[in-house]
Amino acid sequence: xxxxxxxxxxxxxxxxxxxxxxxxxxxxxxxxxIEFILLSLVIHPFSTFIVLFLIKRIKSxxxxxxxxxxMYITLAVVLIAFFISxxxxxxxxxxxxxxxxxxxxxxxxIYFFLGVILAFPASSWTFLILKHxxxxxxxxxSFVSNHLGGLLLAxxxxxxYLLIGSIFNQPIFNYIDTFFDTxxxxxxxxxxxxxxxxxxxxxxxxxxxxxxxxxxxLISLFLKGDTLYATFVLVALTGAFCVFLVWYFIKQFxxxxxxxxxxxxxxxxxxxxxxxxxxxxxxxxLAAASxxxxxxxxxxxxxxxLVITGLTTFGITFLNFAQIAMTHLLIKRDIKQxxxxxxxxxxxxxxxxxxxxxxxxxxxxYLWNPSSYGRExxxxxxxxxxxxxxxxxxxxxxxxxxxxxxxxxxGGPFVKMWFFRAAIRKAPMLxxxxxxxxxxxxAYLWFAFMLLGGVLFLKNLxxxxxxxxxxxILTIIFFFVLHMFYGRDVFLYAPNxxxxxxxxxxxxxxxxxxxxxxxxxxxxxxxxxLINNLSLFFLMLAASSAHK
Length: 548
What we know:
single chain, mainly alpha, two-stranded antiparallel sheet, 23 helices, 2% strand, globular
């Protein structure tokens, strides 16, 4: 019994830092003494539950595999060090970031610890649940046990993306296109305020408001109606969910949780995920929808689930439905079912568009209004060899390993930072560069990983079912062709292809998944990638803080 109490006390103590971060954030919305204590009573047993799960996993699996355990611990240390480094960097720019957002106020510390102490009995119940054999087989317990690595990774990246979003989504950034041609200002108005009108009058997002705004409203219920931070949370949750889905997909094909965790961690640390998983934009939602669609196909889920996912994708940006439809055909290989699927979606998009514009009458023009498409001309360009070269660099290098951005001043008070700028108003086409030996080395290492994946794919081309790999290749080609004609800074669209690149590589590398040298190579690459990508945020903070 004393051993049980020691283990419980140890888990209860280790859960305090996690509870502190969560309650530090929630304390911005729940400020009374009673609310804070009640929140501690709810949050801390959950923290203890996760730590107990980790202890159980370490005892049952990792003690016999000390190298695996060492690599997991190293991975955790690397990721936490990146979070702390970014936090400390942001603290030095107080006009952009208030650290108290994630810290328990000094006057509330006594109530935090009081709540944590009072939560000990409830925490002990989680211990009993984990010890009970019948309860271990229950849905939630079984799910957490089978997906612990992916869930922990997603939790970490949620807090990381929320931290980044808390800096660069703030109302001080009240101009569009400042970072990578993103429209954070406009989407913040549409999702987080009652000013939901489409200022650009573009019908390419036919019914996005009835998809996103209800989710923001739902999250805001837990934040006392604060729709701004509910939007921050929703974007970060979606970015973290993408990391989990990448982990989940790889885990279905490769019997190696460490491999899935390492690849998903690199994916989550890529430039694309760090930026688009944090900024208020639409493309992370499209990536999540595409990944959900893949999982539904993988699990052979009913047709109606595919229809719902397709309708969601169409409503966010209708061009992306073409990629969804292509995936359906390549994976299912059933023409009749594919035609039926397309007809169902086509029939339903019209009434949903009508419903959206009835609820939000100042929203986007109707999908079938041809006159509104003329506004897309400013985003359209003639394809050239130079654009193909630059686009390839953005897709295969910059979207993972951040280069030094292109800086320019063009409207608004902020210096703009892009990775790629199309030839606009007779200005030359520009591309970001890797400045210095370190960034170039990280880029070359990533290129070597991709080259290895390509060689292994060709080697095994005729030896396995390559439906998913071919789908990822065609997805990449689809968006490459599309953005040869469309996009000013094409990095903006990176979530559309990043999951495809990583999942293609994960499948190509799978014969090396359990090779220790390859696992070490992936783990060794991650801190290099994070150090390089941290420099991007240093530049973003420096450029933004210079604005008066």
